[in-house]
Known about the structure:
Layout: H1 2-32, H2 35-57, H3 74-93, H4 95-116, H5 128-145
Amino acid sequence: MHTYVGYALLATLAGALIPIMAGINGSLGQTIGSTYYAALVLLGVGFFAVLLVILFSSVPVPQQFEQSAPHQYIGGLIVAFYILSITFLVPRFGVGNSNFFVIVAQVISAAVIDHFGLLDAEIRLINLKRAIGITFLLAGIYIARK
């Protein structure tokens, strides 16, 4: 149970920081006049932050890099697309609207991934109880957005 609570708190913190990051980066894009450079700055700062964590935690370089499949690196392209999209959208569409659609898409795609066990995920079928929960979650997000 302790691990579950810890993971839930970490996920909650990460989720809470997403709209803050979106707002800050959207503002940076407006200030410097470029969505692309704002995204580059965000990803560059993130790269160096992770590099510092690796260096100061003395994490050895994994030997399994050669065993990974090319598709396992697509996450970098996805995060770049997300950063570019949200940096562009926030000043034009708002933090709330932008994140509303991001969250709806995340909930739906996560349910599909879990239902079919895609991407090596544990299979968690979309049964009636889960479908009702997802529906209420989406309805709550929609109501909170208004």
